[in-house]
Amino acid sequence: MNQRSPGRHFLQIPGPTDVPGRVLRAISEPPIDHRGPAFADLSRSVLTGLKRVFKTSGPVIVFPASGTGAWEAALVNTLSPGDSVVMARTGWFATLWSEMAIRLGLNPIVLETDWRRGADPEAIEATLRADKTHQIRAVCVVHNETSTGSVSPVASIRAAIDAAGHPALLFVDTISSLASIDYRHDAWGVDVTIAGSQKGLMLPPGLSFNAVSPRALEASRSAKLPRSYWDWRPMLEANAGFYFPFTPATNLLRGLQEALGMIEEEGLPNVFARHDRHAAATRAAAEAWGQSGALELQCQVPKDYSSSLTAVRLAEGHSADELRALILRRFNMSLGNGLGILKDRVFRVGHLGDFNDLSLIGALSGVEMGLKLARIPCGKGGVDAAMEVLTEAAVAQEQA
Ligand SMILES: Cc1ncc(COP(=O)(O)O)c(C=O)c1O
User: Fold this and answer.
1) Cα separation values, 269 from 182, 197, 264, 304, Å
2) Taking a C-beta distance cutoff of 8 angstroms, is the pair 212, 61 a contact?
3) pLDDT attached to residue 322
4) Can you list the residues of the chain whose pLDDT is less than 70?
5) Which among 66, 92, 96, 175 is the best mutation to test ligand 1's pocket, defined by most ligand atoms within 8 Å of the CB?
6) What is the pLDDT, as a whole number, of residue 2?
7) Which helix (H) or strand (E) holds 211?
8) What is the 179 CA–ligand 1 centroid distance (Å)?
9) Strand, helix or coil for residue 288
10) Which pTM does this prediction carry?
11) 198 Cβ contact list (under 8 Å, min separation 6)
């Protein structure tokens, strides 16, 4: 193969995702004075626009940080040393979050899963009912587990907490679901929503978010975990005048303003429908390939299928990492790797962010050719099956 890879790189990891030209151009504008009036205008538009994406009337706090920073901010602002937190271990990211909780001096009560489904509201309810003295202060759930392609039912988890009559707060990680999969901070009774910039919001990595409920704000007044950079209070005070207590990531915020505009132009319901359609097409392809018995979906529960990525699991004896390396070398496409116990077992196809039907077909063609090249037994017609799903959706839309 030549050293140079002509044509565009296919970045099919489940985030960071492709950044649209409009957003890149906005980011490349000269930095502005973060204490001047132009910044206040930018900040007002971004902080207001974010509320519409999180579906909240409360504040959304923006930290210059990766998503991990927003996990930490949620915990340290609301909890005290030794507090118990229920954590549904649905995959690698839920595991990392529970490890962070231990490092912060919290006591995670981990509800295990087989990493092939979302969190179980009944298990959460039973754990809360058994906690008669209300030692548990929070329930932490990853909405879309990026390592497995499984979604947890947030509204049912809130209903389970309420059914148990338990006062625990509900924290939800939407790092790979916000602006890709339907999500409602207020309507689903979430206390802190955690998100990041580099996936559905179509930005580079570098911004993270906490949407905060009145109950979470109340909890922050008595929470005793040490915090400084992550403290919500100085941030909210400065944000009241549309400024920040430290230098904000001005250029990323300008990119965010552009990205929020693009999401509004498309309309959030259409954004979700597009992600649903691409996920359905990808599963149709995977199902056809899987007729050989050599591969299957990692998520085993249809109601939990993710619309932002699909994790495909290879049978024993096949290496997902070798397949990914071959596809990168030969077709200039990056696929997501297997994480934690799924290392070398799965490859993940990201279909989120600024993405369309033909890009998806290109990506799935790369996977299908890669499977053949790697001599992994592969059922026929995967890409055809995906095209069928997309064509049917297009016909329905044209007729509407
Ligand atoms: C669901 C989820 N949670 C947390 C993280 C960690 O976020 P970051 O790598 O931006 O710190 C990721 C990253 O991919 C993720 O997908």
Assistant:
1) 8, 20, 10, 19
2) yes
3) 98
4) 1-2
5) 175
6) 56
7) strand 207-212
8) 15
9) helix
10) 0.98
11) 15, 16, 17, 66, 67, 204, 205, 206
